[in-house]
Amino acid sequence: MSIWIHFLVFFLTFFMMEFMAWFTHKYVMHGFLWHLHADHHKKDHDSWFERNDTFFIFYAVVSISFFLLWRYEIFALGLAIGLGIFAYGLTYFLVHDIFIHQRFKLFRNANNMYAKAVRRAHKMHHKHTGKEDGECFGMLIVPWKYFKK
Q1: Nearest-CA neighbor of 139 among 59, 5, 25, 54?
Q2: DSSP string covering 42-78
Q3: Range 22-31, long-range pairs (CB < 8 A, 24+ positions)
Q4: CB atoms inside a 10 Å sphere around CB 51
Q5: What is the pTM of this model?
Q6: Using one digit for the tens of pLDDT, what is the confidence trace for 108-135?
Q7: Over the Cα atoms of the chain, what is R_g?
């Protein structure tokens, strides 16, 4: 199989994860698993960790499963898919947890147009403290209106 197929699958997987993150955030985190996500909207704890942090485990297991499918020669594209999921997870951690929420004090001075739009959209998401009436469930793809301010 061509190396270009693997690169294509990696990038497609990475970009599809933005949709998966949006879907999971809107219908799972703000749905039947709200009890795990609620502490991310209302700081009702003193710990650095949040119940919300458990969501990364699901996608980590999916990513590792694809690595194993590739490793044991069950699915040739498993490595590309596993790496695509991992790369999106790493990007999500860097953008959401570090850049937006400043869980580590890094990337504080990023003030380009895209960075500002990401912050605005996420701020609008967090203005809703309940599970209903939310907006801006994605992370990397930001509605155009947040670029215009």
Answers
A1: 25
A2: S---SSSS-GGGGHHHHHHHHHHHHHHHHHTTS-TTH
A3: 22/137, 22/138, 22/139, 22/141, 24/55, 25/137, 25/138, 26/134, 26/137, 29/55, 30/131, 30/132, 30/134, 30/137, 31/131
A4: 16
A5: 0.91
A6: 787 899 999 999 999 999 887 888 878 8
A7: 17
